[in-house]
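Dear Dr. V.,

Thank you for agreeing to look over these. As mentioned in my earlier message, I'm a first-year student in the group and I'm still getting used to reading structure tokens, so any feedback on how I've presented them would be very welcome. I ran two proteins. I've put each sequence directly above its structure. The first is here:
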Amino acid sequence: MKIGIVNPYSWDVPGGVGFHIRDLALKLRSRGHDVRVLTPSTSDDLPEWITSAGSSVSIPFNGSVANISIKPKALARTRRWLADNDFDVVHVHEPVVPSVSMAAAMLSSAPLVGTFHAALGRSVSRAIASAPMRLYMERIGVRIAVSEEARRTLIEHHGGDAVIIPNGVETASFRTAQPLDQWVATDERPVIVFLGRLDEPRKGLGIFAGVIERVLEAIPGARFLIAGRGDAPDIRAAVARFGDSVSFLGGISDEEKESLLAGASIYVAPQTGGESFGIVLVEAMAARTTVVASDIPAFRAVLEDGRAGALFDTGSSDSLASALVELLGDHERLDALADAGQRASAQYDWEVVADKVFEVYKLAIAMGSPADSGSRRARDLIRGRDDEEYLR
């Protein structure tokens, strides 16, 4: 099957949607399918199966920053990419983001599948902005949501419905990862890990830092390892008094992440909201590391209401500290949650997830090309000038 996948966000900036697209494309290519990806990028080192739609701009979105491509050149390149490839199906991710996914959804004559990743609260401005999107949303034959929260966001803001297919994880690499000596936990020195952007408040580093003093009072040998890009000078200054009990590791590679999680006692996910899934939770579960996460809907779903990991009151360092002290003092429960989490992680393995996505592709193809109703005006908005003029 010839499959086109469209990423609205810059390939050059690591992010959950980009990783999802990369891993899905690689899994499908490993099965013999001809998969091509269109994405914003300025890299000169892209694989031959990835086409750049040009540069991106950074726009604040949902408590983070979205790097999207909105230039006319990107629209022209999207149109050319579709014309140059006779795709059996085109899979657009986040088609409501004003980037190349939206353009592909407007322009594709191949059957369309759309995946919705975002989890958002109710918003009047979003509701108003969603109205013109209905000009082309009906062209998407089958919609996928990565979680119940993403499905809720889709229904509330855009109507329609979606089949839930979660994000995938290469669980084998986490199950077999070997801890690094400098990060591995021992009975005397348990290791508690944070992974995420340090300078995004919703990722919860401040909440994580707020437990350190109380945990060290109960368990003096505990170590806190903080990995992730960005800077948090105020938090660094506040925890400096704990000396080598706290280490900032900076950005780490995929292999280092696998080793870090494999050697940890507990992985903490203290996010305060804006999450539609929880990929790192699944990665930690696959590594047989106990997860302690804030009680937001997306994390509660992954942890099966606390059966596959522990939950604490969202935004509360006191609640998190109590959970950590209790678990680190109860090795039997800590091990039981680690075992349950590893079992639960199997459903998110890419072998399982890719099978489900491929079944959706076959369904979209059986439904045929996108309906033209309601889409012509949307396509006309981005047509009317020659590609060469856009590309100059």
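The second protein is here, in the same arrangement:
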Amino acid sequence: MNLKKIVFLGLTTMALFGSCGKEEKSVATKENNNIVLRVSWWGGEDRHKKTIEAIKLFEQAHPNITVKAEYGGWQGWQEKITTQMAGGMAADLMQVNWNWINIFSKDGNGFYDLNQLSSTLDLTQYEQKLLEQCSVNGKLNALPYGVAGRVFLYNKTSFDKAGLEVPTSFKEIKEASVIMKERLGADYFPFEADYYGALLLMLYKLEQETGKPFIVDNKVAYTEEQLKNAADFYLDLVNTRTIPSLEDRAAAGNVQLDQHPSWIIGKFGGTYEWDSASLKWRDSLQEGEQLVVGDYPTDLGPYNSGFTKISMAFAINKDTKYPKETAELLNFIVSNDDAVKALDVSRGIPANKKAVATLEKANLLDPFMLEANNKVISFAGNGIHPLFEHKQLHTELKDIVDNLGYKQITSEEFAKQVLATTNNFLEMNK
């Protein structure tokens, strides 16, 4: 057996490892005159259980189709799918990250063009701009499941204790810092941000001022001076003790943001976090603390600048033998009343309008989470570039923000490094 064949067989074994179905085949098969489809996704136990329930409902409605479920946790999932895609072993229907379209289908031919299945898929239930974000060269590569974005969340109880209203601008946030410290203690802050939150606050300011997202035409859309000003904006929030420094935040150890002791007991009064995680932030507060969804500050410029992205999507294998049946499965999952109720919000609030109406009618949408998602949609900026959350770029930008936050570099150096690092990365990954 030659080396090439050994490597291929090894990769195939890796792709099969951890699958929850029987032996995988490259595309749908026909067994005993029944069509067999494969569907893959990642997530936690709640998502697994509810997705399997929706699949069973589909099988009951389509007795000639058997659906094999392949699922697992996020850790290593992208590597698994990469191996499957390379070996022609991917499932017929795949839950995908939005940026995977750029990874696996740069020319639009990596996944099945869902426009060709519009007689089966009800595309009218989606905002056109969301479909466009999942399209490459006019080919619809995936169906967006939902939209996630950052919202301003405030512990109303903390502001009440200080005799303050929940802030609606950065000016009011800074003013609240002075009063909170006078009335409640020096370790109270009206707002907090980790390194990623700090970066997103800077981008929030830049997009609100310019109307441009971070990356346009495969390069950073901002000038060095604009980036410096954004860094100064963040440093001013730190230096005025409006938000804790990265060093202050690290004093509690390497803990998740919602588990930070100062957040739990109300000493951090606000944050800029994912709407899809809003219930986690609310429920992590100690008893007696009330979390509310705040307004987006608009005192930095005239443009909407909420950070948003397609949370995840579903794509169909370009090599599936049964595109129509796979499309029927997809359409069932995202719009059938019983399936939608079974899935609940295990993948967040859906982008499908019919699904949202179904969940609302069944009282399955938490009003707090729905309010957060509605605000995301109402103040959404221009979205993000597919490569913005690439692991390599994310790591490099984290180092730069950390160095700024720990005062290892100046705002001028920060601007130069962000420009050079990001533009070099984009050039290398065209």
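From my reading of the second output: The radius of gyration is 23 Å. The first strand starts at residue 29 and ends at 31. Does that match how you would interpret it?

Kind regards,
E.
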